[in-house]
Design brief:
The complex is a heterodimer of chains A (398) and B (128).
Chain A (H helix, E strand, L loop, with lengths): L3 E2 L10 H7 L1 H4 L10 H21 L6 E4 L2 H17 L7 E5 L4 H12 L3 E5 L9 H7 L4 E5 L13 H17 L7 E5 L11 H4 L3 E5 L10 E5 L14 H4 L7 H39 L3 E4 L9 E6 L4 H10 L2 E2 L1 E2 L12 H5 L4 H5 L1 E5 L6 H21 L4
Parallel strand pairs in A: 1-11, 3-4, 3-5, 5-6, 6-7
Antiparallel strand pairs in A: 2-8, 7-8, 9-10, 10-13, 12-13
Chain B lengths: L8 H7 L12 E7 L4 E10 L2 E10 L2 H14 L4 H4 L4 H8 L7 H24 L1
Antiparallel strand pairs in B: 1-2, 2-3
The chains are: A alpha/beta (398), B alpha+beta (128).
Amino acid sequence: MKKVYLDYAATTPVHKKVKKAMEPYFSDNFANPATLHQFGQDAKIGLDKARKRVANFIGAKSKEVIFTSGGSESDNLALKGVFFKLTQNKDFTPHIITSAIEHSAIINTCNFLKKRGAKVSYIKPDKNGLINPDDIKKEINKNTTIVSIMHANNEVGTIEPIKEIGKIIANVKKNRQVNNNDTPIYFHTDAVQTLGHIPINIDDLGVDMLTLSAHKLYGPKGVGALFVREGVELEPLIHAGEQERERRGSTHNTPGIIGLAKAIDIADSEMKEEKERLINLRNYFLQEIKNSIKRVQLNGHPNKRLPNNLNVTIKGVEGEALLMSLDEAGIAVSTGSACSSTRLIPSHVLMAMGMSHLRAHSSIRFSMGKYTKKKDIDYVVKQLKPIVKRLREISPLK
Amino acid sequence: MGCFSENSKLMEHFNNPHNVGDMENPDAIGHVGNAQCGDIMELYLKIENEIIVDAKFKTFGCAAAIASTSVLTDLVKGKSLSKALNISNKEIKEMLGKMPAHKYHCTMLAADALKDAIKKYKEKDETK
């Protein structure tokens, strides 16, 4: 049976060249880079080079990059790290502004910090999943210390106006300086979905912290990074050795870090062409679906969106049943519908966008990648048509 | 497939559900679920002399929800109303075979659809 993987937003296969770059660091160049002997120093050379590569790619300095175990840890470190630092020995209630469509690593961290006394504002997007920078501006008060807005949404693919929000934060910083308010305000963005897909430059975006992950761009799982601008103070989550300038203890995952750097290398050389190819392929995909199936709606922004993301609602068809039928045809996708007794509510992202429950339950996400070809899309559309027809016949919804 | 075992009864009923469709002048209609939870089941029954002589269904929901209603329609056919009321979600679950625990609620919903249909039928009967 033909197999088509269209869940690249969930994770990607490790690129052969990435695997090859990592290989020596398992058993040959294996030593602990924090040790002083030659074995350790050889590993450190690789580590330092990788750090420089990651930093360069986003326009940062080497010392501003903290390697972590992945995107979720980076998000946790950014928010909790700043919160714990600011509330140390101080009677201070930090205010955090985030969006209602963040990844669970941000939403659940904010919920946790709320229990620890933080005030949190969850900004709602418009119906396309776009956050309005003015909504953030209005929400900022004298205690606002963290603003965390994702670079692009993982479900609907909408790319957020980070640069515009960055300018607002820069103004607040200036005003606080003038008014002798020494409460810091930091701007964080989770760029897990955009890294390697669209250009990222920390100064252009105006961010103080930025979350990265390797496994969404053909790197290994279990490794990521947090960019922390010089001057931003945070408390570590993992208290251990002096690694990462005492901001993240634990022996380095050298092979993983090398893998992240190599994945970035490859993305850097291919991004421009790949971006164009995926945008064309995605537009073709949507058109083909619309040509063969009636009552299909695009979810997310029509053009401010990730090149590889296509999220649609197919009316009258429940997402999980569709996912299962596509799976039987060898096609892997994802849905915003969750049919389980523990969590019957559909995706928080689609709900925050103001969608009806039914529209959200009938949503399906196709996320394409490096190995997706036009003939794969043709196969999916061909399979999709009879499946949708069948499920609509079973459905009581008109 | 996916979270269900391949070639299971559940997948068989999902792929080829029994008794799907509308019914002309049904004697009872069961309607359960809602848009919020994402499962909507409609059960149509033909009843003669307190015996269910025909059953059809339509379901908007996941594979387990569709398979549960399919099995239910098989189970109720030919049963008296009082016997049909004894059909539990356990029976539906057993007929479908292994499924993840978070899908049990689909079998419960199907059992509720039957109860709802019979309840409405009896209410209608009383007002006659």
